[in-house]
Design a protein that fits this description.
The structure holds two protein chains of two kinds.
Chain A lengths: L1 H21 L12 E10 L3 E12 L2 E4 L4 E6 L6 E7 L5 E7 L12 E7 L8 E7 L2 E10 L2 E11 L5 E3 L3 E8 L4 E9 L4 E5 L12 E10 L3 E9 L24 H40 L1
Parallel strand pairs in A: 1-16
Antiparallel strand pairs in A: 1-2, 2-3, 2-6, 4-5, 4-7, 7-8, 9-10, 10-11, 10-14, 12-13, 12-15, 15-16
Chain B lengths: L2 H17 L3 H27 L14 H25 L6 H25 L8 H4 L6 H33 L7 H11 L6 H34 L11 H27 L8 H32 L2 H13 L1 H20 L6 H28 L19 H24 L22
Classes of the chains: A alpha+beta, B mainly alpha.
Chain lengths: ~300, ~450
């Protein structure tokens, strides 16, 4: 008994000590957390520039996105920063703002816009900012067929300071289609000096159930133009195969199981539950025989 | 001496165990209730705040709850296999311990699936498993199998209890509340031991003993297939079915030995549960340990030798981050029981019980090493994986619920031993079995 008593006490002490050791305490931070602002600008084919600022908070375990943080966008000009607009970060920590390509913001000698995004911080999070320079440009995607071959044509233009448009010049452009998690590159177009390039369009790209495809042409991280994107739709995709409800097939991945699987399951369950029923019947007969014996004894 | 007289003598001996609970028994029950209450608090914490309070994240989606589920299901199958097999082999020495094996089966079967519920984030969608279940899914197989197994094991336990229930009903000297007398009367089904009743009971018990063995093997294989039919390195193995069955019975014999030790001490069953019983179950544990060691060696040897990239990565994680646990589980957990039971001089009740305790811990760790490190080395790289989420660490919530599950197991066992004698009173010979050598007679 003594041993049992001391055993119970020992176990309780171990449990209490372990719980104490595993109790999670929240560490209180007094200094504001370090934030990182990543600034990205994309010229889109609707004659606008999308400004995107992503803020993340650095901590021991890595970095997490900062939501609902106000970001102010500026144009950096010789006389001082001119405020473009303000936006708050979403749940993914990204603040977006669109400005028209034809704007009055000052440009530098290379005719590039100098843009800045600023997060002013607060008691909990440090301030951070980043700059991005680009010359507005546009990519126009079109399609044509020739000699039963399909082609994608990309035309690149740049917006000059005086508002005119001119050819973007020789450049490599990636042509891709959006898939479930990322973009699938389908071709690479080299623009000539007039800013025009073509490439053969592959015939084995799967679209939606009707064969619709969205094709995106993009220039990424160019020294002058930054990021440029243009897109267009066509019906050159292969229709996505759908399971016809009229003719269901029995596969591992279809709604109807393979026949051998169903038969095996039925045989096994029938065998097992058949034995259970036999055992239960024996119990019922035991009960009945007891009742039969009892009236005989009473008589 | 006739069976009736010996059973009465045994009932008189075990009556105090059923009639009252001593001071220490009440303290023990109070302690278990305290741990269970702590578990309830942890459950409330988890339900109100979500699974973020656990260590499970996008990378490692299964943790301690699944390990506990596999562990408890494993020991339940062991109880079923041992009681069924010993019944079919007509091993006379089984009778003092068979009740414990049957209790282990039922109680573990009731506790194990609860851990699955803790792991499921949306319990309100649980009925979908039944309403929209797909026959092709191993999860559906598992639901069907476990439900069938629970029913079968309860039926088998009831058949085994029937004679004793009749004895308890008829034992006039038993001082228990009227509701318990009525319960015994109701459950005894009017069994009086007539020739016809004995024949029917024997037929039913023989059939269920065989079925329970088959069901236990099938059900635990299905549980293994949930892992092995995936392509995950570390899980995708053709020998997972038999490997899990062997590991399950191995861990179950450990739990049975520990249960024998404690009940022998607490209820003073030295006359009925002797060294020979510990040695006999220990031999079963030794044989299973040898098989377990063989399967484990075969599993890791083929992985290591094949040098397939993902397998290599997994083995590196095991040896680098989990080295101590790996050694404890696969070396200590195999060698210690082999040595203790294999050498006659080391074969004492205490040593065998300590070895059994090591087996229990080692097999729990074995399941942990199957689940967690494998998920930490995914087959396909996970997009935007946060570094903080790549390594799993259980939180206090998970440990509290684990402790509560173990406490509930002990509590149900204790309550069961208070309702029914922990040693079978019918057909039990009065004379104690003397300790012998390792060879079974």
């Amino acid at each position: 008994m003594k041993r049992i008593k001391s055993g119970i006490l020992f176990t309780f002490l171990i449990l209490a000590g372990t719980l104490q050791a595993w109790a999670q305490d929240k560490a209180e931070t007094t200094a504001p957390a370090v934030t990182v602002l990543q600034y990205n600008c994309i010229s889109t084919s609707d004659d606008s520039i999308q400004l995107g600022a992503a803020i993340s908070v650095k901590h021991e375990e890595g970095a997490t996105n900062l939501a609902n943080a106000p970001v102010v966008f500026y144009s950096v000009e010789p006389e001082g920063d001119v405020k473009i607009g303000e936006s708050k970060t979403d749940v993914h920590g990204v603040a977006l703002l669109k400005i028209p390509v034809r704007n009055t913001y000052a440009r530098n000698e290379q005719q590039m816009l100098n843009l800045k995004a600023v997060y002013n911080g607060n008691d909990k999070f440090e301030a951070s900012e980043a700059e991005f320079a680009l010359k507005p440009a546009k990519l126009v995607v079109s399609f044509y067929e020739e000699d039963s071959m399909r082609y994608v044509k990309v035309t690149g233009t740049q917006y000059n300071k005086d508002g005119s448009e001119s050819s973007i010049g020789a450049m490599d452009v990636i042509v891709s289609v959006p898939k479930l998690f990322s973009m699938l590159k389908i071709a690479q177009v080299t623009l000539d000096s007039t800013g025009v390039g073509t490439a053969e369009f592959p015939r084995d790209i799967i679209g939606d159930s009707l064969g619709n495809l969205t094709v995106v042409a993009s220039i990424e991280e160019n020294e002058i133009f930054g990021n440029v994107k243009g897109s267009a739709n066509n019906t050159w995709g292969l229709p996505k195969h759908l399971i016809s409800p009229d003719r269901p097939t029995r596969e591992l991945w279809t709604p109807i199981a393979p026949l051998w699987m169903i038969i095996t399951l039925i045989i096994m369950l029938a065998g097992v539950w058949g034995h259970y029923i036999y055992a239960i019947l024996q119990l019922v007969m035991i009960g009945k025989s007891a009742k039969a014996v009892k009236p005989e004894e009473e008589s | 001496m006739s069976e009736a007289v010996s059973s009465e003598k045994l009932l008189r001996e075990f009556a105090p165990q059923i009639e009252r609970t001593g001071k220490y028994g009440k303290l023990w029950i109070a302690f278990l209730c305290l741990v269970i209450c702590y578990g309830w608090f942890a459950l409330y914490w988890q339900v109100s705040r979500g699974h973020i309070v656990t260590g499970m994240r996008d990378n490692v989606v299964w943790g301690v709850y699944i390990v506990n589920f596999i562990f408890f299901m494993g020991i339940s199958y062991a109880g079923a296999l041992i009681s069924g097999a010993l019944h079919l082999f007509h091993a006379e020495w089984r009778k003092p311990i068979i009740r414990m094996a049957e209790f282990i089966t039922i109680i573990a079967l009731l506790i194990g699936p609860c851990f699955i519920m803790l792991c499921v984030g949306r319990l309100d969608r649980l009925p979908n498993l039944v309403l929209f279940g797909r026959i092709q899914s191993p999860i559906t197989w598992d639901v069907i199998a476990i439900s069938t197994d629970i029913f079968g094991c309860i039926l088998f336990l009831y058949l085994a209890l029937l004679r004793d229930l009749g004895k308890l009903r008829d034992f006039a000297e038993l001082k228990v509340p009227a509701w318990r007398k009525k319960l015994y009367t109701f459950l005894a089904l009017g069994y009086t031991g007539t020739q016809e009743q004995q024949l029917r009971l024997k037929r039913a018990t023989d059939v269920m003993a065989a079925m329970v063995i088959a069901i236990a093997i099938i059900v635990y294989s299905v549980l293994a297939w949930i892992f092995s039919v995936t392509l995950q390195p570390g899980w995708h193995s053709t020998i997972f079915g038999p490997y899990f069955v062997i590991a399950a019975v191995y861990s179950g014999t450990g739990v049975l030995i520990v249960a024998m030790f404690f009940f022998r001490k607490v209820y003073h069953l030295e006359e009925h549960i002797t060294l020979q019983h510990f040695v006999n179950v220990g031999v079963i544990m030794l044989v299973l340990g040898a098989f377990f060691g063989y399967f484990t060696f075969s599993e890791y040897l083929t992985k290591w030798y094949g040098s397939e990239k993902n397998d290599e990565q997994l083995i590196q994680v095991l040896l680098k981050n989990y080295f101590f646990l790996f050694i404890l589980s696969n070396y200590v957990g195999v060698l210690v029981p082999l040595i203790v039971v294999g050498f006659k001089k080391l074969r004492t009740i205490r040593n065998i019980t300590i070895a059994a305790g090591i087996v229990i811990v080692a097999l729990w760790l074995n399941r942990y090493l199957i689940v967690v490190p494998t998920l930490e080395t995914p087959y396909l790289p996970i997009q935007d994986a946060r570094p903080a989420w790549q390594h799993y660490s259980a939180t206090w919530v998970e440990w509290a619920l684990t402790a509560a599950g173990c406490a509930m197991f002990c509590l149900l066992f204790t309550i069961g031993s208070k309702l029914i004698p922990i040693v079978q009173v019918s057909e039990l010979k009065e004379e104690p079995v003397e300790a012998g050598d390792i060879y079974l007679k």
